[in-house]
């Protein structure tokens, strides 16, 4: 990383104390940082930990001069040290994990009718089908598949093994990690004669810009319309999103969550790991579904919910109905106990 402490201070919009010409060659945790490394400490109350650090440059909170007076290295005082450190890490990432060079690998198969933009990378054994569109500066990793009439937006990145099925669309600057499948058929069947008969899934998936999708996550195409993932949403590994789901903007969906068909998530919803959302449920904006929680009915905006235990259906429904009355029942029992002199 060819930066000085002064460069980092400008990046962090911070105030420098110490050697502005100090060369920064890397970034590390506070206890492992060396004389040419950048590190950070967000909590001034933990300033004592900095005294034993060998970090050459340290990002610390604005107004914490006194707490760090004994630190011998270079200090940068900034409003949000952790965020400033993240910005620096982006520069490190560009150096240590650069994007592959533009070009089409000889083993890739690109249909003659596909439209490939400028400075696109298409890796080994990738397949780009008829009518597909790959926008400028997109990266299509090894063994990726982009189906007929599918679209990949500008500067989107598909890591190795990603599958974008026919007609689906990936927005600009989206990141899809290895093994992601976009546009597999929705899980729809009818059983009019005792056997399960497949309902054709003719819709598509639209992933808007700056979405990130973790490894081996699957998002099903809609039956007729679209499955939508709103801009800025971040999805973890091993998540399943079923057909016709509408996910709002800037949502967070954690690992192994399952979202059944036709669910609607408002903007800024958080779904915890291994949570399960039943079909045709609407979850209002800014709500949080904590890990391993089952949601079986609509949830208003700005809610935080937790907890689900599997019981026989009728018993479970009875218990759920009674749970809402527990505060009232507890109050009544308390009054009875008081009258009986039991308290």
Short recap of the structure:
By secondary structure, the chain is of the alpha/beta class. The chain has 5 helices and 39 strands.
Molecular structure report:
With 343 residues, the protein is of the alpha/beta class. The strands form six sheets. The protein has an eleven-stranded parallel beta sheet with strand order 8-11-14-17-20-25-28-31-34-37-39, with no helix packed on it. It has a ten-stranded parallel beta sheet with strand order 9-12-15-18-21-26-29-32-35-38, with no helix packed on it. Helices cover 15% and strands 27% of the residues. Among the domains are: 3-96, 3-Layer(aba) Sandwich (Udp-n-acetylmuramoylalanyl-d-glutamate--2,6- Diaminopimelate Ligase, Chain: A, domain 1), CATH 3.40.1390; 313-343, no CATH class. Helix 2 links the parallel strand 5 (37-40) and strand 6. The longest helix is centred in the N-terminal third of the chain and has 16 residues, at 81-96.
What labels would you give this structure?
alpha/beta; Udp-n-acetylmuramoylalanyl-d-glutamate--2,6- Diaminopimelate Ligase, Chain: A, domain 1; 15% helix
Ordered list of secondary-structure elements with their pairings:
Layout (H helix, E strand, L loop, with lengths): L2 E2 H8 L2 E3 L5 E2 L1 E2 L9 E4 L7 H4 L5 E5 L12 E5 L2 H16 L6 E2 L4 E2 L4 E2 L4 E2 L4 E2 L4 E2 L4 E2 L4 E2 L4 E2 L4 E2 L4 E2 L4 E2 L4 E2 L4 E4 L4 E2 L6 E2 L5 E4 L4 E2 L4 E3 L5 E4 L4 E2 L4 E2 L4 E2 L4 E2 L4 E2 L4 E2 L4 E2 L4 E2 L4 E2 L4 E2 L4 E2 L8 E2 L7 H11 L2 H14 L4
Parallel strand pairs: 4-5, 5-6, 6-7, 8-11, 9-12, 10-13, 11-14, 12-15, 13-16, 14-17, 15-18, 16-19, 17-20, 18-21, 19-24, 20-25, 21-26, 24-27, 25-28, 26-29, 27-30, 28-31, 29-32, 30-33, 31-34, 32-35, 33-36, 34-37, 35-38, 37-39
Antiparallel strand pairs: 1-3, 2-7, 22-23
